[in-house]
Design brief:
The chain has about 425 residues and is an alpha+beta fold. Helix content is about 45%, strand content about 10%. Strands 1-2-8-5-3 form a five-stranded mixed sheet. A three-stranded antiparallel sheet has the order 4-10-9. The structure holds protoporphyrin IX containing FE (HEM). Protoporphyrin IX containing FE binds next to helix 12 and helix 16.
């Protein structure tokens, strides 16, 4: 196997220690900001780990997101992952002008103003989930991923899109199976079945929205497609698929990874409980310190591109380690320390450039409401297992990094749970029937 000439020990990337990859990231970054590597699946790629170089790469229009266009010239065949080509044409898989067009169509749902209007409903979902967990007893271990960190963002994105409540359990299970990591070149039968389920479900959902329009983002996109041909059927399906994935898995990991970071730094957690006004800054530190998306999605050079002092050849795959860049000592003071009072911003956990996270205002608000409610209501919360038993085994570990389970003991609540319940769904309609 070919080794990286700038770091001979680094002959493959992506098969690192999932529970604590940070020492390796630091070692590789201190050797050089850009490396030629071989991915765990055998494909060659260029890996960017320095902060300045990562920003430059994410901002460079010669790094294309359109795998098919970029690699058509090279003859390189890259395996099409699940769920396949029908869902592979969303804004994160294309370049301008298609990117601009697709992003604009979804953008109105994610403006700070539209997102702020969702706050009461998100608070209500948080209240209900925490009440259900607390009902299981102050001293009973509960899984915070299954009971809180996953259902909150999943419910929010389903309501925004107009996915009816009775359909969500199947859909949630399929996405969990689809995003579960696997060894070897072929996805397991479970992932293939999940992929088929999602393709069939979302295709049928479009037909339902055409027949019975709702007050939701899927209806808006269907109307745009029918009214002025603003997007094709493939783009419509791909966009909805990408919004479901991007809209829940990442935020689940932010709530989980952030909670672990806080529980491991009790003095900072106490400060936060005493002054929840510190939460927005604490969330930025959680994003920097343990990025839910540790690496960008792939990019492809359309010509020779110099990044830092390295010239990457044309038609090469490039992957940017957001997590490594987020701990670059050239950018952050004492970067390996978790510090919710940190004032040196500029982390790349939400990306950079034209593909900067569209859902950032929503993710930040969900995390603020969720983490504030969780930690202020349960100030005595603690891990139910030794930290060494926590495993970041959800997601592929490269583009998605999250805990499979987060067992905690909530302890006695500090105040009574809110009894506020809202019968309306996130888009303002009385029932989320789609
Ligand atoms: C903590 C939660 C989140 C994190 C860490 C996160 C992270 C990211 C990152 C790193 C990118 C850029 C990927 C790249 O350039 O390769 C991205 C793009 C994107 N994210 Fe997020 N995301 C989060 C939540 C959300 C939510 C809640 C939504 C939507 C409901 C969302 C929708 C998107 C979309 C649509 C893009 C593609 C934007 C484009 O291509 O122009 N994300 N996200």
């Amino acid at each position: 196997m070919k080794t990286c000439p700038r770091h001979p020990a680094l002959n493959s990337w992506g098969d690192h220690d999932r529970d604590n990859p940070f020492p390796l990231f630091a070692e590789v970054r201190s050797a050089a900001p850009v490396h030629e590597v071989r991915l765990a699946d055998g494909h060659p790629a260029w890996l960017v780990v320095g902060h300045d170089e990562a920003k430059a790469a994410l901002n460079d229009p010669r790094l294309s997101k359109d795998m098919h266009a970029a690699l058509a010239h090279s003859g390189e065949v890259v395996a099409e992952g699940l769920p396949g080509p029908a869902f592979a044409r969303h804004m994160l898989a294309v370049d301008p002008p298609h990117h601009t067009r697709l992003r604009r169509l979804a953008m109105p749902a994610f403006t700070p103003k539209r997102v702020a209007a969702l706050e009461p409903r998100i608070r209500s979902i948080v209240d209900d989930l925490l009440a259900a967990l607390a009902a299981r007893g102050a001293d009973e271990p509960v899984d915070l991923v299954a009971g809180f960190a996953f259902p909150l963002p999943f419910t929010v994105i389903c309501e925004l899109l107009g996915i009816p409540e009775p359909d969500r359990a199947d859909l949630g299970r399929w996405f969990a199976d689809l995003l579960a990591p696997y060894a070897g070149p072929q996805p397991p039968a479970r992932a293939v079945a999940a992929s088929d389920g999602i393709v069939g479900y979302l295709t049928a959902l479009l037909d339902r929205k055409r027949a019975e329009p709702g007050v939701d983002l899927v209806t808006d996109l269907v109307v745009a497609a029918e009214r002025d041909g603003a997007l094709t059927e493939q783009e419509l399906l791909s966009t909805i698929f990408q919004l479901v994935v991007a809209g829940h898995d990442t935020t689940t990991s932010l709530i989980g990874n952030g909670t672990v970071a806080l529980l491991r730094h009790p003095a900072q957690r106490d400060a936060l409980v005493a002054d929840p006004g510190l939460m927005p800054r604490a969330i930025e530190e959680c994003l920097r310190w343990d990025a839910p998306v540790p690496h960008s999605t792939f990019r492809y050079t359309t010509e020779e591109v110099r990044i830092g002092d390295v010239v990457i050849p044309a038609f090469a795959q490039v992957i940017v380690s957001l997590a490594a860049a987020n701990r670059d000592p050239a950018r952050f003071r004492d970067p390996e320390s978790f510090d919710i009072h940190r004032t040196d911003g500029g982390h790349l956990a939400l990306g950079h450039g034209i593909h900067f996270c569209l859902g950032a205002p929503l993710a930040r608000m969900e995390a603020r409401i969720a983490l504030t409610a969780l930690h202020t209501r349960f100030p005595a919360m603690r891990l139910a297992v030794d930290p060494s038993q926590l495993h970041w085994d959800h997601g592929d570990g490269l583009v998605l990094r999250g805990l499979g389970q987060l067992p905690v003991v909530l302890g006695a609540p500090s105040v009574n749970f809110s009894t506020h319940h809202s019968a309306t769904c996130i888009t303002g309609s009385r029932r989320c029937s789609g």
